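Appendix C reproduces, verbatim, an entry submitted by the partner laboratory led by Prof. M.T., so that reviewers can inspect both the input and the predicted structure.
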Amino acid sequence: MSEPLQRPPIASSHISVILFARALATDADASLQGWRHYLDTLNRDYEILLIRETRPETGPLQVPEATSRMRTLVYERTLGIRAAVNEAVSAARHPLVAFCECDRQFDPADLNVMLKTIDQVDLVVGYRTGGQAPPWRVMLDTLLRAASWVFIGVKLGPRVCWLGSEGWGRRWAARWLFGLRVLDPECPFRLMRRDIFQHLPIQSGGPFVHVEILAKANHLSCLMAEEPVTWKPPPEPTTDAISFGDDAWVVLRNPDFGPYVAPAETAEAPPPVS
């Protein structure tokens, strides 16, 4: 990617929004309406690509007719989301691409602060705030902050979010196996320049997909920024047919960055010497 000062302004560009709707989510329609209402306030062209999960027990899915601003892509839970995400990214028509869950966990208006940041970077990653850490984690954080201040003179900030022990473990894996120094690598709310996906095919079929995008973008030297986003935890934890660890192992062992594209010629070849 280009250097920070060479990134062309993009904040006012048209936007493609990719939303993920779970098969068992009861508030997906309300969330979709919220996104439409918010995007109408931006006074720019937009499109919504809705990726909907299906399960055998939910029966056939009624897919609304595609329009110039709305398209639905369907995937079966046991097969994973990989093909649907790749199709959605390929079909996105606008220079900006936003990702988010479609279940009212997040407030669409938080995209405003990401739009103010995107001109300086290649992607803006949200991080969820809130959540009460257990006593053992609070004590450990306190000891680490004290040790950091005493021994190396660095004052660590307080923990901004707690997503449970499993979430902490996945964040640890993202940091130490894939080099991601972000607060919340699994947060699905993010804004990106579409061109970063030129060498970023998706391999994951489960929840690791959000970490994979950041890990590959980081490897490609994309510049990232982080912004806090309002978060309302879902009433019940979600389950995936394809595990975080299975996809992480595939990407770690054999990452796919797409076919090699030779750099464009910048100058004409000199004429042959007679």
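The radius of gyration is 20 Å. Additional entries are available on request from the coordinating office.
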